[in-house]
Amino acid sequence: MANKEQVLDTILAQGILPLFFYEDAEVSVEIVRTLYRAGVRVLEYTNRGKEALQNFRLIKKAVVEEMPGMYLGIGTIKTGLEAETFVDAGADFLVSPIVDSDVALVAANYKMLWVPGCMTPTEIHIAQQYKASLIKLFPANILGPAFMSSIRELFQGQLFIPTGGVEIEASNISGWFRSGVCAVGLGSKLISKQVLEEKLYEQLYADTVKALELVQMSK
Q1: Where do the domains of the chain lie, and which CATH numbers do they carry?
Q2: Is the Cβ–Cβ distance between 45 and 59 less than 8 Å?
Q3: By the 8 A CB rule, do 186 and 211 touch?
Q4: pLDDT digits 0-9 by tens, 145-195
Q5: In which pathway does it act (predicted)?
């Protein structure tokens, strides 16, 4: 099982956290291979369909066999049972759209990184009480960098990652980093429905390289 600090350090160094779900297992594995080839060493597969667990196991197998140094997390975890199930399947870290005490407990038991989703200062405060070292601002397109700028003094030292609607363009990414985030989550803006359905792996490769470069320039 992955070391909590190593996973967090990799997210901070990488500056982006790619995330996606797709029903087709073969395409899902190929997306992960493409991300790895572009330089990604930590990513999140999301628990958003009935195929998620089976696909996750296949991706994990490919990661273990082909992609040294890759950390694979599971997202959209809302219950303790879901958390336990995916830990058993080999998840390196847990991501939630909400703050749930049962998920926090599972993460604590396994000494895993847990990234809960928060939208208000109260939720952030509760997440901190559950020892969340990295907090997801979600949905980022609703909150915006101005929200991050407004709360950073209230929660000094807390690490934040916005997810949901972050654009792969210099002004958007640099705006987020200026506001005080440590990384950005990239879902459909990077791994779009078109990329998945049309298997546009070379486009994904180029966009991922670009996103990684933009983040390094913005830090």
Answers
A1: 4-211 (3.20.20.70)
A2: yes
A3: yes
A4: 999 999 999 999 999 999 998 999 999 999 999 999 999 999 999 999 999
A5: Carbohydrate acid metabolism
